[in-house]
Amino acid sequence: MRAATQLLLACTLAVPAGLVAQSLALPEGASAEAKSIDAERLREHVKLLSSDKFEGRGPGQPGGELASRYIADQFKSYGLAPAGDNGGYLQQVPLVGVTPVAADTHFRFVPQAGSKANTPVDLSFGTDFVVNNQTHTPSETVDAPIVFVGHGIVAPQYGWDDYAGVDVRGKVVLIVVNEPPSEDENFFKGDALTYFGRWTYKFEEAGRHGAVGALIIHRTDLASYGWQVVQNSWSGEHSYLRDDPNARLKAASWIQHAAADKLLASVGRTADEAIAASDKRGFKAVPLPVRLQAKVVSKVRSYDSANVIAKLAGAKPGAGAVIYTGHWDHFGIQRGRAGDPIFHGANDNATGTAIVLELARAYAEKKATPPHDVFFASVTAEEQGLLGSQYLGLHPPVRAKDIALDLNYDALIPIGDVRSGTVHGAERTTTYPLVEKLAKQEDLVLQGDSFPMAGHYYRSDHFSLARVGVPAFSIGEGTLFAGHDEAWGKQQEEKYTAERYHTPADKYEDSMDFRGNARMARFGFELGWLTMLQPKGVAWLPGDEFEAARKQSEAR
Q1: pTM over cut 0.70
Q2: Contact predicate 350/412, CB 8 Å
Q3: Where along the chain do its domains lie?
C-alpha cells in the first residue's frame, strides 16, 4: 500500500460544517510507522492466539485469562502506558456465566382449548431449541401462555409497535428474527438491518414488557446464518454483565423454523405465513392457544474477565483521542463435545486482536508524536453480546466526549492482498469524506455492505461505543482481492460463514495470507492519525440515532 506521504492531493476535502478541509499528508515519522505494519507479525499473533494452548479464549476460562495476559504483556513490551484498573493494563469486567444443562432442560408446547393442534410437542435441546436463563438462577420453571408478537419491535419513529394492545406480563412471546423488510431509507433504514432486528434488542424489549420468556424463530435467510451458528453460540456458557437491568427473562430462547411450524399450527398457520403477516403494517399480536411448559436448569458462576487497555500519550491530552478496538474472546473449550472441543477463533477474532496489537506496536515506535492521545483496547465477551465493549463504553479510559473516533477490527479473513475495504457506519459521521479521500489515495475501493440485512453494524464492538455517543465503526475487507474478481471474494466470505463461522473449524492454517489484513491495519493507522489532525472533532450527522447520545455526553 502506498504511504500517505507519497501523494499530496491538490484538491481539498469537501466536508460538512465542523470538519475542516485538509490534505492527506502524515508526518514523515508517522508514515514510517504505518509502513512498518507487517503481515508476518500479524500471522504470528493469529497462529498463537488460535492455538490449542489458548483453548479458544473463552472469557472466564484459563485460555481467556492467558489471552488477556498475553495482550497486556505485548502492550507493556511496546512501552505503552497502562490504561486499565489501578494503574494496570486490565480492566476487570464483572460477569455472570450461565451454562444450560441440556439433559435436564425441557421444552413442551401444550395445546389449550381452541387449538387446532391436538397433542403436546416435546422439543429437543440443540436440535429444536436453545435457551439461556437471564435471571442467573440454577433452575427456573415456566408454565405460561404464548403470544405471537411478530418482530417484537417498538419503534415510534417508524410508527411501529408490535406490543400495542396486548399484555404479555407473565407470558412467553414468540418473535420473528430480523425486522420488517423495507426499501425505504426512512423506514427501518431500507434494506440495512437496524438494532431493532438484533436478538439482543428483542430479548431486552420482551423483558421490558414483563414477559418471562421469549422464543425467537430462526430462519436462515432472515438471520443471515444457519441454525448451527445459533446452536454453537447458545449451547455452552452465555454470560451477562452483573446486575444488567436488561436481562430479565427466565427463558431467552431460539427455536428452529420447523418447531415454529408445529407451534403455529395451533392457529392454522405455517411459520412462513405468520412471518409474512408480521411484515405488514397493521399487524396485531396474536395470543396462541398453547402454553410453554419449560424447565431450564443451568450451571451459574460469577467471574471477572478483562478488557486490556493501553495508552500512547499525544501532544494534546484530553479531547480528540482516538481508540482502536477489537475483541480477543471466542467460545473457548466445550469439554465433552464430540470431535474438536476447542473453538479456535482464528479469523474471529484473532485477526482483529492481532491488528490492534500491530497498530499499538507501530504507534509505539514514537517516530512522531500523535496530535492527541491514542488508546488500544482488546475487549472481552463480544461473543456473549458485546459485553466487554459495553462495559468499556460505560467506563472509558477518558470521558466519552473526549474520544473523537473508535476504529474497530473484527474478523478479517486472511485470504490475500485486498483491493477493497468496508467502513459500514462511517457514512453516518462527518469523517466520511476523509475516509473516501484516503481510500482513493490508497487505491482502495470502498464497497457497500454485501449483506445489509445481516446488520453487521450492530453486531460488533464499535456499536457499544456508538451507544454512548462516540463516533465509531469497523474497518474491514471488501470482496475484491488481487488476482480475483468480486464474485470470488464473496464466495470466500459465504463459504467461511457456512463452514467455519462460530465452529471449531475456524483454525489457523499456514496457507493464510495476511497481506490484506496488514493493508487494512495501515489504512486504520492513517485514518486515525488524520482524524486527530482535524481542528474540530468528529460528529454524527444530524438526525442519526446516536446523535442524541453524543450531545448528552458533551453536556456532562
Answers
A1: yes
A2: no
A3: 4-95+302-555, 99-300
